[in-house]
Amino acid sequence: MSGVFAERERVETRVLGALRCIDAVTGTPVGCAMELHADGADILLNRSGLHIIRRTDALVAHEARFDSPPALPAIGSVVLALTISDPLGVYLPRRATLALPRDPDPANAAAANSLFRPADLPLFPSPSAPVAVNWAVLRVSVAAGTGEHLGGALLRVLRNGNVLGRGLSDWRGEALVPVAGVPVTTFSEDEDSVVSNEIDVVLQVIFDPATGRLTPAAQVRDGRPPATLPRVDPGALEAAAGTLPGITRNIAIAARRVQTLSLSVLLP
Q1: How far is 152 from 175, CA to CA, in rounded Å?
Q2: Closest by alpha carbon to 104, among 123, 92, 94, 117?
Q3: CA angle (235 as vertex; 232, 238 as ends), nearest 5
């Protein structure tokens, strides 16, 4: 038996990449929807909690090539600039970039730039975010030597060169830097003590005057946020840490301990 079939409608869902928002402290997926925006791009949230990039002006040719993506532009040669905000205010707004096109070869599905693998996007807690009981918690105020408060500063907690925790400062220069996984007791480096309930670390502040925000102290006291909140790319700050203004301080942290510190950064 033969027949004639007419195609009445065709629905094709094209995906150029996906982003998975994760908690920067725990590494677990963020359970609530974030607001992601990129100029000239369509980004949708799917039922799995992934932000799907449906289209972008830079990859218009891909829209007509479903089975075999064009060879140009080359994989990873287009940079998509993103801004991310949390409507609930649990996480601080930030910037990020994603290299497109992603690698469409199924044989490379395990690679970090694979089209079949979402790119993880760490989000940093705001000062009002909840903290776990066993975390070591640092609440840090960051200001310039001239008195302005520094929004968009990256803070890192390091031990023997390894990063234990990260945080960002909000427009007031206030940062929450939680450190998860600090043991309640550990071996002491003091020869007179076998165990200790704290560890020695270095707290580092990194600030880029070109992307961060300086807010006058009077404006912070009045509680008047700026029209545009600071949005920085923590990855870019970390990569340029050796060339940017900053400060370090040696401190000791412990599980279940909350510490409050004030740091002043000398700006050029």
Answers
A1: 9
A2: 117
A3: 100
How does strand 136-144 pair with strand 258-265?
Answer: parallel
Spatial contact of 59 and 73, defined as CB atoms under 8 Å apart: yes
Two tokens at 208?
């880029």
Query: In whole angstroms, what is the distance from residue 65 CA to residue 45 CA?
Result: 23
pLDDT 10s per residue in the chain (268 long)? 556 666 666 556 678 899 999 999 999 999 888 999 999 999 999 989 999 999 999 888 877 666 677 888 999 999 999 999 999 999 999 999 999 999 989 999 999 999 999 999 999 999 999 999 999 999 999 999 999 999 999 999 999 999 999 999 999 999 999 999 998 765 555 555 545 689 999 999 999 999 999 999 999 999 999 999 999 999 999 999 999 999 999 999 999 999 999 999 999 9
The span from the CA of 97 to the CA of 155, in Å, is 20
